[in-house]
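Exercise 7b. Backbone tokens:
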């Protein structure tokens, strides 16, 4: 699984960071960014929770 954040949709609420801080970080501009590369298997459920929790539907699983 790979994941990315659509910068045009993200509004910086931070729900994703609360659910999976190992993958999601806030940039200096206040929006979320996903770590590059494959999501470690033990974090896939947390990433899926973040996808569900994002109020802007900004998180895309590739
Ligand atoms: S939950 Fe969605 S809108 Fe909020 S910071 Fe994360 S990606 Fe952006």
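Sequence design result:
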């Amino acid at each position: 699984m790979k994941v990315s954040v659509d910068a045009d949709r993200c509004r910086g609420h931070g729900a994703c960071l609360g659910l999976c801080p190992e993958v999601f970080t806030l940039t200096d501009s206040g929006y979320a960014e996903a770590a590059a590369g494959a999501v470690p298997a033990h974090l896939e459920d947390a990433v899926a929770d973040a996808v569900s929790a994002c109020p802007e539907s900004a998180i895309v699983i590739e």
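Instructor comment: The chain has one domain: 3-61. The mean pLDDT is 96.
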